[in-house]
Amino acid sequence: MTITLLVWSGLLLLNVVMTGILDSLASKIDISVYFSLDAPEPAIKDFQQKIQQLSQVADTEYISRDEAIDVFKDKHSGDSTLVASLQELGSNPFEASLNIRAKETGQYGSIADFIDKTEFKNIISKINFAENKTAIERLSHIISVTRQSGLVLSLIMAFIAILVAFNTVRLAIYSSREEISVMKLVGASNWFVRGPFIMEGTLHGVFSSFFALSVMIPALGVIGPRFNSFLPEINLISYFYGNIWQIVLLQTAAGVALGVFSSLIAIRRYLKV
Amino acid sequence: MIRFQNVSKIYNSQSAALRDVSFSVDSGEFISLVGRSGAGKSTLLKLLIVEEKPSEGRVYFDKRDVHKMRPHEVPFLRRRIGAIFQDFKLLPQKTAYENIAFAMEVAGKPKTEIHHDVPLVLDLVGLKDKGNNFPRELSGGEKQRVAIARALVHRPDVIVADEPTGNLDPINTWDVIRLLIKINEMGTTVILATHDKEIINALSRRVVSLDKGAVIRDENPGRYILS
Ligand SMILES: Nc1ncnc2c1ncn2[C@@H]1O[C@H](COP(=O)(O)OP(=O)(O)OP(=O)(O)O)[C@@H](O)[C@H]1O
Ligand SMILES: [Mg+2]
After folding, report:
1. Which family does it belong to (chain A) (predicted)?
2. Average pLDDT, chain B
3. Would you say residue B150 lies in a domain?
4. How far is C-alpha B70 from the chain's CA centre?
5. In whole angstroms, what is the distance from residue A96 CA to residue A264 CA?
C-alpha cells in the first residue's frame, strides 16, 4: 500500500514538474531573424506572413528598428554613457528582427532550412539559429530523452502498482479460500464470487489515490516555493490547486483502472469457478 | 438422470484415478459407491459437480454434458446437486441458520423466502432449536445435519454425499444415514460414497464398487465386497 501510494504521488508530481520544465524551456527557444538595415518594412511584413503560414510555426513576433532601440534604451536607462554614445551615433544601429517560435522543438531545423531557401534571403542579415543551433538541438534532444525516460518510468511505476494491487487481491483470495469453496459448492453465481475481489481492487485504487493526495499536498507545500525560486515560470502550487479536481479525478480513475485490472488478473489466475 | 460414459481421469501421468467408468443413475435411486481409499470415489463425485474435468469421456446430467456447460451455467447445476462432505465445509464464523441462509443469499434469493425456508429445512434435519449455534457449538452429527440442510435448501434433484459419516460415531452415523434415507423417500436421488461396510450391508440398495479407478461390480441390491 505504502509503495503504491508513493509510486502514485511520484508519478503525478514528476509528470507535472517535467511537463512544466519542458514547456518552459521549449518556449524559450526561438529563431531570431535579423534584417539588414536597409530592408524595406513591407518586404519584412511579407516575409513574416509567409513564415506564419508554415505549419510548424506557432507564432512570430516582429520587432522593428525603433522598437529595438527603445528596448535597448529601457534596458540601459541607468547607464548614461551608453545612452549618450548612442545619441552621438546619430542613426539607429539596430536591425529589425523577427522572432519565430515553432510548435515543437524538433521543428526548428526545418524552419531554418525554409528561411535559407526563400527569396527574402537578400534582406536577411543573419539568422541566429545557426549560432544557437547546437544548443537548440542538444536541448531538444535532452527534452525528448527526458520525456521518453519519464514515460518508461511511468510504465515501470504503473507495473509496480499493478503488482502490489495484484498481490493484495491474491492474498484476499487466499485468505478467503474456504468461503470461496463453500460459495462454489452451494452454487453462487460466478460474478457473485468474484465481485468482492474486484471491489477489493477498486478500493485499493481509490485509497491509494487519496493517500497519494494526502502525501502530495504537504510535500508540495515544501517543494513548491523552492521550485518557484529557480524556475519562476512554473508555479507548481497554483498549477496544482488550479487543476485539483482534474487531478483528483484522473488519479482516482487511474487508480481504480489499475486496481480493477490487477484484480481481474488475480481472479483469472487464482479463482477457479 | 445421471450418466457416466467411458469416463477416465488422469491427474498425473503415473496412474489413472478413473479408468473407463460407465454407469447411470435413475431419478429417485439411492446408490452407494464403495471402494478402497484411492479407488476414485471422490473423483467421480467431483466430476459430477464440475470441480474437476474428465480426461476422457462424458458426464451427463439430465441429458446434458456437464463439462460442455458454459461457466455461468455451472452454478445452476450446483444448485440442483446438493453436496455434503466428511469435513462438513461449514463457515465457522456463521451460525447454523446463517450457514444455510448463505447458500440462498449467494443464489440471490429474496429475504422473505430465506426467512421462510431456512427454519423449514432446520426442522427437517431435526435442528429446529440449534439455529443460533455456531459450528463449534455443535456435535459432528449436528454439523453434518446442518450441511445436509444447506444442501437441501435449493430443493436439489440429487444429493451427493462423500463419506458424510467418516468423522462420526456410530449413533451420529445412523442419524445421518436415516436422514439421507428420509430425503430419498421424499423423492431426491442420493449418491453416497462410503467405506462403511455396515451401512452398505444394512441399506441393501444398489452398490457400485470401484477398484483402482475401475467399476468392478454393480449390483442391486448389493453388498460390501472388496477384492
Ligand atoms: N487433486 C489431485 N491431484 C492429483 N492426484 C489426485 C488428486 N485427487 C485425487 N488424486 C488421486 O486420485 C486417486 C483417487 O482419489 P480419490 O480421492 O478419488 O479416491 P477416494 O476413493 O475418494 O479415496 P478415499 O476413500 O480415501 O477418499 C488417488 O490415487 C489420489 O491420490
Ligand atoms: Mg474420497
Report:
1. Belongs to the ABC-4 integral membrane protein family. FtsX subfamily.
2. 93
3. yes
4. 23
5. 64
CB contact under 8 A, B103 and A184: no
- pLDDT band, residue A245 (cuts 50/70/90): confident
Which residue from B43, B52, B160 has its CB within 8 A of the most atoms of ligand 1, so it is best to mutate?
B43
Level-2 CATH architecture, domain A30-137: 2-Layer Sandwich (3.30)
Number of domains in chain B: 1
| Residue B75 sits at the chain A interface (C-beta within 8 Å) | yes
For atom 12 of ligand 1, the residue with the nearest CA is B17
- A45 falls in which pLDDT band (50, 70, 90)? confident
| Tens digits of residue pLDDT in A1-17 | 455 555 656 666 666 66
What is the average pLDDT across B129-142? 94
Q: Which of B71, B77, B103 comes nearest A186 by C-beta?
A: B103
Residue B152, domain CATH: 3.40.50.300
The pLDDT assigned to B62 comes to 93
* A112/A89 Cα distance (integer angstroms): 33
Q: Is B46 on the interface with A (CB under 8 A)?
A: no
Would you say residue B188 lies in a domain?
A: yes
User: B124 lies in a domain?
Assistant: yes
Q: Can you tell me the distance from the alpha carbon of B227 to that of B35, in angstroms, rounded to the nearest whole number?
A: 9
| Burial (CB count within 10 angstroms: exposed 0-12, middle 13-18, buried 19+), residue A64 | middle
Q: Which domain holds residue B91?
A: 26-39+80-219
The answer to whether position B226 is within a domain reads no
* Domain ranges in chain A with CATH number 3.30.70.3040: 30-137
Q: Whats the size of chain B, residue-wise? A: 227
Establish whether residue B14 lines the binding site of ligand 1, counting it when its CB lies within 6 angstroms of any ligand atom: no
